[in-house]
Amino acid sequence: MNTEGPKSGTSFANPKVPMVELCNARQLYFSDDGEVEALRDVSLAVEDGEFVSIVGQSGCGKSTLLSIIAGLITPTFGEVRIKGGLVKGPSRRTGYMLQHDTLFEWRNILDNVMLGPEIQGMDKVEARVRANDLLDRYGLADFKNKLPQELSGGMRQRAALARTMCTEPEILLLDEPFSALDYQTRLAMSDEIGMILRREGRTVIMVTHDISEAISMSDRVVVLSARPGRIQSEHRLVFESAGRERPTPLASRDTPEFGRYFQAIWQELDFHVDGTSK
């Protein structure tokens, strides 16, 4: 476990307000079969421009956590804040990219990217300029008039990212964004989209089952326990062997630090054959 706390002598005068802050969030679901506790006392702060990945076993509450941050679910107990303000519902400040691209097959790529601004009632002229710029930066300018079925899986994911970014969110939430892709495309997309997001300096929170993906893309990996999900550990990722510059997601996989982080996180996620957590 590589959890870092405040060091002796740290000044707490005028503390910096986190971009995202979860405070003792607990989520309960109720059904005819009784009460199910999905999350228990989750507290987490994410700084402006930080890329944080959340990993954990299936059913540990990772996607529920994203929905709480997005304002789609109100936690049963606790609260979530964005820049100090209490989240009471969905906000333009947050963009949510799902597992599948969910592009509308009857709309061309440009019109798909314009969907968010249309729904939010944003200026259409400005949004079209922004959409064209995003498609150009993401290597899709020549495909903006194509239908989704004419694009490869990786291109569709880039189009989905452009659609999410077109509303100019401050925070990007990624829910298993590459899980529907084959392995080779998944590697390429994690590298490509990871570099895009770093260039743009967005605050990103991603949930994934893929430990390698989390390590290669993130500044910090948060490990959730089995349900009810609790923060089991945090790993702040430093690749000193790569020099002063953070290596690209693909290049980070070749560093000696990558293997050490992988083993540490894997051991924390390991479970017995009967499915019980160690």
Descriptive overview:
- It is a single chain.
- With 278 residues, this protein is an alpha/beta fold.
- Helix content is 32%, strand content 23%.
- The protein contains 9 helices and 10 strands.
- The strands form 2 sheets. The protein has a 6-stranded mixed β-sheet, with helices on both faces. A 4-stranded antiparallel β-sheet has the order 2-1-4-5.
- Helix 5 packs parallel to helix 6 and helix 7 packs across helix 9 (256-269).
- Residues 1-14 and 272-278 have low confidence and may be disordered.
Kindly state the percentage of residues in helix: 25-40%
Strand order across the largest sheet:
6-7-8-3-9-10
Series of secondary-structure elements, N-terminal to C-terminal: EEEHEEEHHHHEHEHEEHH
| Computed Rg | 19 Å
Q: What class, by secondary structure content?
A: alpha/beta
Distance between the termini: 15 Å
Task: Detail the poorly predicted runs.
Answer: 1-14, 272-278
Shape: globular
Quick one: biggest sheet?
Answer: 6 strands, mixed
**Count of distinct strands:** 10
- The fraction of residues in strands falls at 15-25%
Query: Helical stretch count?
Result: 9
Mean of residue pLDDT?
Answer: 87
Task: Write the topology of this structure.
Elements: E1 20-31, E2 34-46, E3 51-55, H1 62-70, E4 77-82, E5 85-86, E6 94-97, H2 109-113, H3 115-119, H4 124-137, H5 153-165, E7 171-175, H6 183-200, E8 203-207, H7 211-217, E9 220-224, E10 231-236, H8 249-252, H9 256-269
Parallel strand pairs: 3-8, 3-9, 6-7, 7-8
Antiparallel strand pairs: 1-2, 1-4, 4-5, 9-10
